[in-house]
């Protein structure tokens, strides 16, 4: 996840303190996995070093660091570049699941069971996400849908592989 | 290979409401079902999945008593479906079961309200009363404003919601849904599934949901996979 | 110009565009799969039937004219043909009509008086005594193995057949026999110099013309309805195909042209079928006899103009119906849309049709007797308008009735809603039934109404026969006829008298009072009337006419001078043989008895002693015979006996039921025809129902899945078929009764409802409904199987 670009984007709406930044990030993109403070300041200092953000002001207070950050012109350009650049589609060529199946076939273990177990696990997660969707807001729904579509894709692969196990076994054992 | 369905946790009924044992059914040379077994407990939503041609629709047809299996038994609430006459099975379907299909299930010349009221009318409920109850279910599925329209005048998603209302109107104990969202886009499909499963849970009806879409199956409590005419229960209950 | 430049898309000329699209449509008709083929075949068949019927209808006037021409060409009694004196170009001729079993046979005895004696039309050689020329049909009858009695009666050698030009129709039984026994001077036969004259009156009664017109209308309109249904058949699938054409770039006008081309293809094949049907049917006409009328195939020649317009109009109508049907359909690239709210059917122009029809017929109501002639076009126009009005009113009627229906059980609700959504299709088909039934009811009323015309209330017991033979010099005497009659097997009692006509001055000058004089011995007279005592010289007067002849009888008083005995001349000219004869004195009034042999209502019964001075010729011999009616051949044996005595003698069978039997046959024919028409309509209904079921295959399977009883669905199909038919039959009964009453009024007959036939046709209509429903059940059953649930 491009945390740096996310910070640049959030700062573009106005200067923020590091703590605010973390909160805003967690709320919008965290999905149950809040950023560690260390990660926040490491990222900010990297951005500072590259001149993409600057310190807008330091407020006196109790906290360890009460610095307020603002985005620089270079930062804005950097984020715009990032937004305009297409993400490299994940080719998913290195699949643990595939490795498991091939190994099971090589060692004459029941590969179909591995697939079925995985399938059940996928569907279990999908059910959970579906339930979450029913209670959450639109942001929740979209995020869950993203995951659901990916899980569905995995599931389709599982189905396809299950249907072609015999073929695969013949090739693997040749 | 043929795993026996376990009772899902958290359900009070110890015995399944609907059971199919060792079902065989062939159409000409193709074996649609070859020793399939499946159980449905009261109030649960079971997804029946499987590649196309695996026999999942045939499974649904046999479970619902629409087609008799070549061999094997289907029992519902202690009664043996496979021993019933066509008329008895019709009566059972009319009174205990509900149905939702992919498309083409609404009578085009009847209004939406009349379509929803139709199963009640078939069981002999008077028109006024049938339409009153139909309207309640249409409200539950948020299509009560479409009562006077003909099926041809409503969208696909609305049509499916009307079909769902119709399947629920008799207060069935099992609803059979065969690809209920198959003809809908995902947004409309999701909406139909949400309303459908919520309404079914609310009324305590079990749902046998045949689908090839995992995201639709995700609305279920449990999954059964039909593969080569056999039903596999893949879930670890717990 | 560079050859590499992109070629401009050639703009097709309008004509070429039309031709191209029409041809493309025709290709679609050929490649449209089973449904397309069925539509093409049905269209072709319907158009073919229509063309054949219309060609036949257009041929009727010429056929009737040909009949009349031939009938007049062989006319042998007319003042202009007569001659007083024998010459080398005169011919003696006498009627020798007879009857064999139920079949009337006409015949003439010919006796040429010179080498230039005229030959009847169609006869090549004058038959000599002992020879005869016969019509082909009579030849067949004579050759039949069970015609022994007829061969005895007509033993002459057959030297040839009468050509078509000498016969009115192919089914005519006619003969010309040679003889040497005719003698006009003694009242046997007429002397003529030629055949043929203009009579000026139609060979067909106006009644028959009316029947023919209505008959064609009744047959044609259902066929038109059938064609209309046929070109629409499989319309939805056709429309979807047209939508696919739209997707690849055809515009709306092209689509219409393509659809028209498809219909035109079927229609053109239909014209060919029609021509073949007409020509084949024309050959069959030889075997058809209706009202004793038969036609030669060659008589059925449609006028070239009418034929040409038929051949053009029927396909044009088929195309027009197609385009009209597409009017409410919008074919878009992505599918077919029917205009959701079809314009509400208006009633006024539909009502206008029957009203206009009645208006056309109304002036003809003030009848002036059943022999008057009609303006055929006016009658046909009126009848057509009324019947077409039925067809036009029905869709409106069905729509408005169905719109008011609601509630009821599920099957009823399904049917009503289905009809509310689209009642036009079934109503249009049912229009055919309605028109056929309305026309048939009208025709049947006409038949029943005029039936009385053909029934003679003789008041006679069956089993009695009356022989009338000319009495002349050298001819048979009553006693001899009596003897011979009595010797005939099956004859149980006889009585024969010499019958002379007497005339006295009547009430009006120039109109003499006429009565019959019967001269016979006492024992014979006793069989003719209730006479207790009788001696030779006695005379009796018999008035059994219930008073109507009394006034006439009063002109003949004892001792009065009267004219007696007539020589038959040409036309209505009659001359007395004995201008001054004295009526005998002492006439005793007597009555006829139920057991009396004769048909003597009124007249004078004289013993030979009382008839002194009366001529022995120029009268007729009246023979009465009691026949054993249980013996089937008794009458034919009697006719044989009489024919042997005198071939020109006539035998009347005093029986009242024969004509009715012929009417029963016509009624049966009409019923069969209407039933066949209704079955044709039923077939198109069936096709429509099955098509509708096929389109709803999935829905039916779903309905069954959620527990709908099969009987509910069957009942809904039944209701859906029955509702328009019931309305149609009701409308048909109403308008049929109306039209029938109008027609009866026109021919001056009291209007009498023929409930039996109304009920009959209604039951046939109901039967068609049941049949269509029953026939659609197998496919309904098939559609209701769970296979229909499969999503593929």
Task: Describe the protein in words.
The complex is a heterotrimer of chains A (174), B (238) and C (792). By secondary structure, chain A is mostly helical. Chain A has 2 domains: 82 residues, Winged helix-like DNA-binding domain superfamily/Winged helix DNA-binding domain (Arc Repressor Mutant, subunit A), CATH 1.10.10.10; 77 residues. Chain A is built from 8 helices and 3 strands, in the order αβααββααααα. In chain A, a hairpin with an 8-residue loop joins strand 2 and strand 3. In chain A, helix 6 runs antiparallel to helix 7. Chain B has one domain: P-loop containing nucleotide triphosphate hydrolases (Rossmann fold, 3-Layer(aba) Sandwich). Chain B starts with 17 loop residues before the first strand and ends in a 5-residue tail after the last strand. With 238 residues, chain B is α/β, with parallel strands linked by helices. Helix content of chain B is 33%, strand content 24%. A 6-stranded mixed beta sheet of chain B has the order 6-7-8-3-9-10, sandwiched between helices. In chain B, strands 2-1-4-5 form a 4-stranded antiparallel beta sheet, with helices on one face. Chain C has 792 residues and is of the alpha+beta class. Chain C folds into 4 domains: 209 residues, no CATH class; 113 residues, no CATH class; 239 residues, no CATH class; 192 residues, no CATH class. Chain C is built from 20 helices and 19 strands. In chain C, strands 10, 11, 12, 13, 14, 15, 16, 17, 18 and 19 form a 10-stranded mixed beta sheet that branches. In chain C, strand 11 and strand 12 form a beta hairpin. In chain C, helix 12 runs antiparallel to helix 20 and helix 19 packs antiparallel against helix 20. At the B-C interface, helix 2, strand 6 and helix 3 of B face helix 11 and helix 18 of C.
